[in-house]
Amino acid sequence: MKLDWEYYWDEVKKRKFFIFGFFLVVLLPTMDTWIFLGPSVRTAQSVGIMPDSVTTSIIIQKAAILVIFAVSWDLLSGYSGQISFGHALFLGMGGYLAVMIREGLMIGDQEVFPGMEEQLVDIGGIYFDLSVIEAIILASALIAVFALVTGTIILRLKGPYFALVTLVLPLIAQILVTKIWGDFTGGDGGLQITSQLIQKPPGSTLEGLDLFKLQIEQMTTVILTFAIVCVAIMYLLARSRYGLVLKAIREDEQAASSSGINVSLYKVSVFVISSFFASVAGGLLAQVFGSSTSALFESERSFEIIIFSILGGIGTILGAIIGTFVLFFALSYYIKDGFVDLQTIEVLIFGLLLIIIIRYQPRGLINADPQLRNSLFFGVIFSFLMAFYDTGNMIIASTWNPAPILQKYLGQGERGFFGMDLFKVQGRMVLYFIVGTVIGYYGPELAQKIRLRLWGVWPSLGTFDPPK
Amino acid sequence: MEEVEEKQTNMTWKEKILGMNKVLLVFILIFGFFIFALISTLILGAMVNMGAPLAPRNFVQMYISTIAEASTLILISVGLTMTTRIRKFGNFSHSEFLVVGAYSVLAITQIFKITNEFTQIIFVQLIIAFLVSGMVGVLGEVLIFGPLINRNATPLSLMVASIGYGIIIRQVIQEIFTGVSQSIAIVYPKEFTTWTVGLRSMPFIGTFFKILFERNTSVTIMKGIEVTFSQNHVWGMIVMIITVLILRYIFNNTTLGMAMRATSDDVDLAEISGINTRAVILWSWFLAAGVTGMGALFLMASSEVNPTSGFARLLIIFAIVTLGGFDSFEGTLVSGFIIVAMKQFVSFFNDQVATIGDKNETVKNLTFWSTSGDWSNVAPFTIIILVLILRPRGLFGLVDPKSKL
Fold it and tell me: Residue A303 and residue B381: Cβ atoms within 8 Å?
């Protein structure tokens, strides 16, 4: 396969501000042990305007896993046009099967098959259990076989019919797992993981919090490696001739078929590949949570990544990555039980953004026209990021005025972005307006009252009613 | 042209069945399921030879609860049929109209602080639920679906947009009313005049009035078979029948209905023939969402309502509409009964197996997974998948499966 590096570099350069700026902002809190940046990061963390490194690491882990999941959905739905509303089926199956294969399966006193044995390896100072990773890959391979069987049946359906069937499948799986096969899936509690992926290095003197921090960092490294490898494979697939054929099928199935493409073969194969990577994500997610529960099957999981990918730009791998990372970070304050909680008021923004994007920029933010991208994208993303930076942790100073700090972040320039968001200051909600720079904020009382009018046009003339 | 005429004259058995009296068809289907349930249970019992295989459960009561449950489900599903027929996409925010209907009734007493019993009378509640959820449906069309369809959006992006609309409605309701479960108080009308009391003593009409105006009525149908009618169920059935009749009348006999049918067949052609398609589309959204909101009252009256209780029922609505065919009115009616009967049958069968499993070790070991769990929720989902794979246009659907839906 010939790689067109110039093309990739151009793609990156076009979006260099997003990519590098964003990753700098995201990864900054984890750099508290670096020689040059370390002291200033630690100062910011101690003052409380930056989340601590452990929180950030855990969020990065989850976001990276969701990136694998979202990209696998995008490969199936964005590239080949077979929109699946229930990709969580593979996420959940991956989670359960990987744990089962690693830990072994017992029904009552009867052992169906034994678990795998521990294989400790040391790669670059990271001590990890290779059998866990083997179990994840083995489980994903099994699920790929399952996808081959189901795919040949359900891919005969087209468009909305396919979407409906895929919507239903994870719900059946959820009922089976919680209500019917509870004897060996653990019912509502789920399957607990007893073997950790990251092990304590032999001869290490670290204890308690330091050990925990080290393990979290190593876990992040392993998961990021996984994410980079998986996404790279899918990106190369999508950029190759294979991806081109998928796009042809998406645009016109009959035309593709008449030019000699075996449409059903390609559709089933992309279904299988996509299911493989989704199950890898599921297996990793189970490792992060320490158990695989039926929450993995919920339709919110599927909708979540659909929203991420559509916001980022459907049919572009980069869009899925950026959309997932940005929105997951943006909403990480609203995360409950390890997932973005789709039951909170803040998720209203989700729904509104989704409709705005489908209405005005159906190709997603990554492909939006530059003017809109610069205003809307920056405004929304930055206000979300500010929410992450300011609300994820307590604010120590009692008389703290956030406006200067926000201004420092956003600059006084004439950048045409705007944004509004609810921030929590000293445990109370405050509504901020950002148009280029902070132009005003409202106190908790008013913020409570006008939460519903959050996205209305609101003339803001200055700072009043500061938080006490 | 000749071929077409030939097809019309030579009716296949399918067309003959579809031409049958629909009510008869419904009854055949329902009774078929229960006879099947009975026979299979007896066979199972004989096989295991364990004395009494039948769990103490009243079959007639099962019929009645099936019909009652099916009535409310049909009432909330016909709206989806209408919008699918006219807008050609599956509306995933349909289940939120349920929540809107239920909460609009709650809002009257909570926000406006009207403690008057007047607002709790069923007719007032039905009208409020109808109007408010109808308006929400129209709002979705005006703000989201209409502009999107004008931009030639695909059915799939419309489906995604409807997920977004559903999220918005749910969150707004959650924000206003919080996520706490609340119960709706419904006051059914009292007997209007004193002379109806005199009718109570009459054999059939008296029982009917008793069922209508008392909360729970026990009726002895045969020796040893006693059936309890819940007032909620009976009113649900009556409202469903009246609503479906009115909708059928509107669809078949009025100018609006004719315009609706024309618009659903071809929007451009309808517009050329002088139909105000925009008004027609808005009217059908209003009717569809309004009827769904009305159905919510009966659905939520037996249980409590919270913002997610609509979303939880989205799939059973889709199961009914898929089985009936996305655009068929009769199909929704029949498949509502089929799906509920299927659910009841599966849970009944589950009980039987569990009963036998308690006594017989072999059965217990054989079916360790089915006795412990409840398969009845799996049944409707399995139906959706089977129907979509084997017969995508459903039982009565007219849509060509190769079309865009």
Answer: no
Selected for mutation to probe chain B from A73, A76, A164 (highest B CB count within 10 Å) is A164
- To probe the interface with A, which of B85, B162, B168, B181 has the most A CB atoms within 10 Å? B168
Which DSSP category does A180 fall into?
I
* Residue A418 φ then ψ, to 5°: -135, 160
State the Cα–Cα distance between residues B157 and A160, nearest whole angstrom. 10
Beta-carbon contacts of A173 under 8 Å, excluding residues fewer than 6 positions away, are: A89, A92, A93, A297
Task: Give B306's contacts in chain A (Cβ within 8 Å).
Answer: none
Q: CA triplet B302, B306, B312: central angle to 5 degrees?
A: 80
Choice between A200 and A72, residue whose per-residue pLDDT is larger: A72
Residues shown for chain A: 468
Model pLDDT, residue A248: 92
Residues 6+ apart with CB under 8 A from A193: A99, A102, A103, A286, A287, A290, A291, A292
Say whether A348 and B175 touch across the interface (CB within 8 A). yes
Q: Comparing A460 with B321, which gets the higher pLDDT?
A: B321
**pLDDT tens for residues A167-184?**
889 988 988 888 777 777
**What span, in angstroms and rounded, lies between the C-alpha atoms of A191 and A295?**
12
φ and ψ at B320, to 5 degrees? -65, -45
Mean pLDDT of A401-418: 40
Does residue B388 contact residue A165 with C-beta atoms inside 8 Å? Answer: yes
For chain A positions 19-48, those within 8 Å of chain B (CB to CB) are: none
pLDDT of residue A136: 93
Given 3-state DSSP classes, what are the helix, strand and coil percentages for chain B, each rounded to the nearest 5? 75, 5, 20
Do residues B311 and B96 touch, judged by C-beta distance below 8 A?
A: yes
Q: Which of B151, B167, B377 sits opposite A175 (nearest CB)?
A: B377
Structural domains of chain B, with CATH = 20-404 (1.10.3470)
Tell me the whole-structure pTM to 2 decimals.
Answer: 0.79
Cross-strand partners of A422: A431
Mean pLDDT for the stretch of residues B374-395: 78
pLDDT at position B122 is: 82
User: Which residues have C-beta within 8 Å of that of residue A46, sequence separation ≥ 6?
Assistant: none
Q: Does residue B188 have a pLDDT over 70? A: yes
For residue B402, which residues of chain A lie inside 8 Å, CB to CB?
A: 158
> Are A160 and B369 within 8 A, CB to CB?
no
Q: With beta carbons less than 8 A apart as the criterion, state whether A75 and A238 touch.
A: yes
Query: What is the distance between the terminal CA atoms of chain A, rounded to a whole angstrom?
Result: 62
Give ipTM to 2 decimals. 0.78
Q: Which residue of B has its CA nearest to A82?
A: B156
Domain boundaries, chain A: 51-367, 379-456
Predicted confidence (pLDDT) per residue in A232-272, tens digit: 999 999 989 999 999 999 888 889 999 999 999 999 999 99
